[in-house]
Amino acid sequence: MIKFLMKCFQKSDGSDFLQEDLSNCPVSKLCIILEHAMPYEGSSELHALALKSLVDISSRQPKLVSSRYVNRLLWLRTLLGHVDADAREATSRLLGITSSALSSTAALDLLSELTSTFDQNRPSRFENYHGLLCAIGYITAGCLKESYVSLCFFHDTISFAVCLCHFFATCALHESLVHSLFA
């Protein structure tokens, strides 16, 4: 059903979908359908498809999507640890798009919250780290586009991301070594 709805959306020119009241236009209703396709017990493939569809919608209607999810950042943040990599990446993109509707201080606060999650030194799943790292990248790109980020802050964020990538590469190397020794 999602694939059919998205094909209909892509075939349209989009002008007939938008109205004065963004909360009641057909695109908003499509977003609601996609949100309802992601119940907690739903399959990871369905979640990924619905999230990727929201990203597709945001490529044509970025203001509608960003204004719709600006008050649902907590919900999006919980999806950053999704078991499906495509779902994590789509969620990260949505967070990046949504950050464009935030004020400069709110966007920088969100970025600081996400980076501080790594400093808490609590054990976490790889999926959480991957989702956070992707989100940090998309939000940083959005902040750079809007000129919210100073070069110093940008440098610190990139250095942090590089260290994190190095850590993951080391973990993957250790894991593959252990698998090869005991296989």
Account of the protein in words:
The protein has helices at 2-11, 26-36, 44-60, 62-69, 73-78, 85-99, 104-118, 126-145, 151-182. The longest helix is centred in the C-terminal third of the chain and has 32 residues, at 151-182. The chain has one domain. It is mainly α. InterPro entries: ARM_ECM29. One of its GO terms (cellular component) is nucleus. One of its GO terms (biological process) is ERAD pathway.
Low-confidence stretches: 176-183
Cα radius of gyration in angstroms: 18 Å
Overall pLDDT level: 79
Distance between the termini: 43 Å
Provide the number of structural domains: 1
Q: What gross morphology would you assign?
A: globular
What's the helix count? 9
According to DSSP, the number of beta strands is 0
| Largest β-sheet summary | none
Q: Approximately what portion of the residues adopt beta-strand conformation?
A: under 5%
Determine the structural class based on helices, strands and strand pairing.
mainly alpha
Keywords: Repeat
GO biological process, one term: ERAD pathway
Domain ECM29 ARM-like repeats: 51-142
Protein name: ECM29 ARM-like repeats domain-containing protein
